[in-house]
Every structure is written in structure tokens, then in C-alpha cells.
Amino acid sequence: MFRRSVIVRINAFALFLKECKGRKELAGLTVPQRGPALGALYRALTKNQLTALRARAAKIPPSPRKPRHVVPTTHAPTKYNLFIKQQMSVLPTGPQKDRMKAAAQLWREQQSKPTTKKQKK
Fold first, then answer.
1. 7 part of a folded domain
2. What is the mean pLDDT of residues 87-94?
3. Comparing 27 with 64, which gets the higher pLDDT?
4. 54, 87: one domain
5. What is the pLDDT of residue 75?
6. What is the domain extent for residue 33?
7. Which of 40, 42, 38 is nearest to 54 (CA)?
8. Which residue ranges are recorded for the region named Disordered (predicted)?
9. pLDDT band for position 83 (50/70/90)?
10. pTM to 2 decimals?
């Protein structure tokens, strides 16, 4: 009924994290220590800095969506496909390889026979 489309935009905190990637005071910290330190730095921003950060984040366009994988439609079976399908049920049971050889031989014999068409007089 309703379609939901997710627009993934970058928020101010994510932009702040990207901008703080090369800070020297965070260089010696481990990953568990870096999270709280970045949170404290973000909370220490002034209102003007925060509004400027939000404005910069709003200017960044959302990431493009990947195109959906289109399942190709199947084509109609050929005369050969239909012939093999019919012959596999008629041929005696045995190894698949031998049955396919016999069916292919029957197909070649059928194709080599001259077809007689009635001509209009």
C-alpha cells in the first residue's frame, strides 16, 4: 500500500566524527576511549558552532541508492528444449549422460530427414 523510502542523510554528529578523524589529541586513544572523548568534545561545542555544523551537514547530499537487481525474464523454450524434455521421459532410465547422448542423436536424425511439404497446385 504505502512505500517507505529511506533517505540516509549525514547528521551533525556524523559530520563531526569525520572532521575529528585527524585530531592529535585523539591519536593516542584506543577505540573504547575515543568514543567518550569525542562525545565530550561534541557536547562542548557552542551553539554557533553546532548550528554551523548542522548547516554544513544539511548541504551534503544523501548517498545515492544502489539500483535494484533486476531478475532477467526467461525466454520461451526452443524446439530442441521441448524435444529433449519429451525424450527424457521416453528414454529408459540410466546415466544422465547416456540419455542425453541418445536424445541428441535422435534430434540430429530428425533434423537430417528431409521434410516433405505439400505444394499447392
1. no
2. 84
3. 27
4. no
5. 87
6. 12-59
7. 42
8. 94-121
9. very high
10. 0.47
